[in-house]
Amino acid sequence: MNIRESTLILVSIAALAGCDQRDAPPNKAQVLLVPEDYRTIQQAVDAARSGDEIHIGPGIYSDRVTISDKEDLTITGSSAESVIISTGDDYAFSIYNSEAIRLSSMSITNADDGITSDAELFINNVLVYHTVDGIDMEGGSLTVTESHFFDNYDDAIDLDESTSALIEHNFISRSIDDGIEIRLHPTSENDDLIIEIRNNVIYENSGDGIQIIDYEVNTNRQILVRRNLILSNGYNGLSTKDFENSIPDLNHGSIEEYLNISNNTFALNQIGNNVSGGRFGSFNNVYYRNHVTDFQSENPERFMNSIIYNQFIQDNNSFREDGRFLLNSCFQGTINTQQIFEMGLRNVVISDISYQALQLEKYPLDLGHIDITGREKCHVYPFE
Length: 384
Fold this sequence. Notes:
Blueprint: H1 3-17, E1 31-34, H2 41-47, E2 53-56, E3 59-61, E4 65-68, E5 71-77, E6 83-86, E7 93-96, E8 99-117, E9 120-137, E10 140-145, E11 148-150, E12 157-159, E13 163-168, E14 171-173, E15 180-183, E16 194-198, E17 201-203, E18 210-213, E19 222-226, E20 229-231, E21 236-241, E22 254-255, E23 258-262, E24 265-267, E25 271-274, E26 276-277, E27 280-283, E28 286-288, E29 293-296, E30 303-304, E31 306-308, E32 312-315, E33 318-321, H3 338-341, E34 347-350, E35 353-356
Parallel strand pairs: 1-2, 2-5, 3-6, 4-7, 5-8, 6-8, 7-8, 8-9, 9-10, 9-11, 9-12, 10-13, 11-14, 12-15, 13-16, 14-17, 15-18, 16-19, 17-20, 18-21, 19-23, 20-24, 21-25, 22-26, 23-27, 24-28, 25-29, 27-30, 28-31
Antiparallel strand pairs: 31-32, 32-33, 34-35
C-alpha cells in the first residue's frame, strides 16, 4: 500500500467516525435520546423519521409537544414515575394527521388536555393526572392499556367525532366529571367504528363511570363494555344521555347504536346501569348495592342473566329471591349461589340482534368482571 492509499483510508475512517446519527441511511431507524442528543422532546420529534424511537431520560419537561404528519414514531420514557411532562397550561401532546404514534412510560400532568389527537395513537403505561381531559380524541383511533388516570378536572378519556378505541386494563378514577365520555357525533356512512372498553377498573369519578351521549343522527358505531369493575361513581356506573346532554343525573336517556354490556360488576354507584335504547343487550352482569337502584331502563326486557346482590337473581327475565353469594374476592359472601355465579352465557340474541360475551382462554363463562389482581384479598386501588 502506498502513502496516498493509506492517507485516503485514514481520511475515510475519520469521516465515518464523525458522522452524525441523522446522516445514517435513510431507511434505517434511529434512537434519539432526550436530553443527551436533543435538549427538548419537541426537537427530537422534529428530527425524527418514520420508524425512529425517542427515549426520554428522567426529569420534568415543560415543553408542549406537537406531532404532525408523522408515522411510526415511538416515544418512551425511562419510567412512568421518573419522566414527567408538565406544561402548566394548554396541551402536553397535540398529535394530528399522523399514524402509528406510540407513547409509553411517562407521566402527563398540569396541562389543559393531557393529549389531544385525531391520529392513530397507542398509549401504554402512562400516568395522567391533574389535566382537564386526560385524553381528548377528535377522531382517529386510540388504544390505551395498562395506564392510570386520576384526579383529572373534566373527563379522563373523551371520545369525540369519528373515533374508534380500545381501552383495556386501566385504572380510571376520581375525575371531576366522567371516567370515560363518548359523544355519538355524526359520522360518515362508511365509518364502522368500534369502541371497546374491557377489563378496566373505573371508580370514584364524580359524574358517571362511563357516559354515552346521543346526537340527532344514528351512527354505525358498535360499543362494547365488557368485564369492567365500575365502582363508587357519583351518579351512574354506565349511562346513556339524550339530546347532547352531558350533565350527570339519574334520568333516563336513550341511544340507538349497538351496545354490548356484559360481564361487568356495577358496585356502590347511585345507579349501576342506566341505559335505554333499541339495540343494546345487557347480560352476565353483577350488581352490588348501588344506592338508588341497580339498573333502570325504558327497555328492561333487554337485561338478562345477571345477579343482583342480596335481592334477587335475574335469570332470563324470571326473578327469584336469593341470599348472599360469593361475588368475588372483593365482595365476600357465602358460596350457596356459586354455581349460579359461574353460569354465564356465551351469547344472547335480543330482537334478532346477537351479543357475544368476551371469550378468552383465561376467562370462564361466568358472571361479573375479572378478578383484577388474582389476590385473595381485594385490592382495587393501585397506588395506595
